[in-house]
């Protein structure tokens, strides 16, 4: 009996060994393409947005196969904001070049890599791999997760955005160029034109135009303007901006003038606790601490934007003059009990003498009246 079952037991044992040796299925579904796999992961939102802006979605959904070195959202966050913005502002140029530099044609698994290996990307320039001490790198980025298979290739996750050598060289060349000769002041744009050209102050410019302050802010000045961005105006309660624009010569003008200080006040001129009088008449207070600067409750997020007739400092909130921070309380008519008693002077003066004479005459009259009343009541 035991011999009869021994072959069956051996077969079951062999089957278990085969099943146990089978590779465990990855967490990502291999029937999804590279784009959908990245979307499903949830860690590549910036990458996916960039791919969409560059118009590369259909290409990366193609047959491939492709090998994508995918920077996480944290990797993109490590880029200087101006670099990322410059790429997003040029989706068909710089952004596309950077994205294609993260894609290698063919399916390159981690086991295919070797130290010093160089591979051409879809952008045309090579990436180089470094392997050592159990760590794999592509250029200067660490490969932190490898071999995420998709239906049309494979994804390797990296912790930094890698840039094509040509882009790095161009940036270095630009940085090495000598600073341009400062433009003569008369050739610089004035405060209004500088704000218009920036493109971040559309609401402010519209408000200045509605209030009829354009010509004033084009004047010789100099003026220091604390300019709220469009996002700053968007933080106002709903309906507030419309109400202000409906009264351009009233509250709108007062608020705008509260953002302007006469003279040219550079960032270096500020000090903690400094107060400055605005064209509206009220003062603003500056706070400096931990490398941050504030005017009232607004953060100064960019400073010293010079113009032909002054300087602009960018702020992240609209600041309100004291009279506009809340509705003025109705003036109450004082009740008799609330009236302040008039105080008589203690020492000389014409008013004091007149009051003293009046009091003396009153006392004499009271005495005479009392004496007459007493005589009348005395029995005869």
TrEMBL record:
Protein name: Fasciclin domain-containing protein
PANTHER family: FI19380P1, PERIOSTIN-RELATED
Top-level taxon: Bacteria
Leader sequence residues: 1-29
Parts of the chain that traverse the membrane: 351-375
Species this protein is from: Caldilinea aerophila
Domain (FAS1) ranges: 31-162, 188-319
Ribosomal protein recorded as keyword: no
GO CC terms: extracellular space
SUPFAM superfamilies hit by this protein: FAS1 domain
Protein's UniProt keywords contain Transmembrane helix: yes
Gene3D superfamilies from the UniProt entry: FAS1 domain
Entry keyword set: Membrane, Signal, Transmembrane, Transmembrane helix
């Amino acid at each position: 009996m035991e011999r009869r079952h021994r072959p069956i037991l051996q077969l079951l044992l062999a089957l278990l060994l085969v099943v146990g040796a089978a590779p465990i299925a990855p967490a990502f579904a291999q029937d999804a393409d590279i784009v959908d796999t990245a979307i499903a992961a949830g860690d590549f939102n910036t990458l996916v947005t960039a791919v969409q802006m560059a118009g590369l979605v259909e290409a990366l959904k193609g047959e491939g196969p492709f090998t994508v070195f995918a920077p996480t959202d944290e990797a993109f966050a490590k880029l200087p904001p101006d670099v990322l913005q410059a790429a997003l502002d040029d989706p068909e140029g710089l952004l596309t070049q950077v994205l294609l530099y993260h894609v290698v044609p063919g399916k390159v698994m981690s086991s295919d890599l070797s130290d010093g290996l160089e591979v051409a990307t879809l952008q045309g320039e090579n990436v180089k791999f470094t392997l050592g001490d159990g760590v794999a790198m592509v250029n200067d980025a660490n490969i932190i997760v490898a071999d995420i298979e998709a239906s049309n290739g494979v994804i390797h996750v990296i912790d930094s955005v890698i840039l094509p050598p040509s882009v790095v060289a161009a940036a270095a060349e630009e940085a090495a160029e000598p600073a341009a000769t400062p433009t003569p002041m008369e050739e610089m744009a004035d405060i209004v034109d500088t704000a218009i050209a920036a493109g971040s102050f559309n609401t402010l410019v519209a408000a200045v135009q509605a209030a009829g302050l354009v010509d004033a802010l084009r004047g010789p000045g100099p003026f220091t303007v604390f300019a709220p961005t469009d996002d700053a105006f968007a933080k106002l309660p709903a309906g507030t901006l419309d109400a202000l624009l409906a009264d351009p010569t009233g509250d709108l003008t007062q608020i705008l003038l509260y953002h302007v200080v006469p003279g040219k006040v550079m960032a270096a001129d500020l000090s903690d606790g400094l107060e400055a009088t605005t064209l509206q008449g009220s003062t603003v207070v500056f706070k400096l601490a931990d490398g941050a600067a504030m005017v009232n409750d607004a953060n100064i997020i960019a400073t010293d934007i010079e113009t032909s007739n002054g300087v602009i400092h960018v702020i992240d909130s609209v600041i309100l003059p004291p009279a506009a921070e809340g509705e003025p309380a109705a003036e109450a008519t004082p009740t008799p009990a609330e009236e302040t008693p008039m105080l008589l002077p203690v020492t000389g003066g014409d008013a004091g003498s007149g009051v003293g004479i009046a009091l003396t005459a009153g006392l004499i009259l009271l005495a005479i009246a009392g004496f007459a009343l007493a005589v009348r009541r005395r029995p005869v």
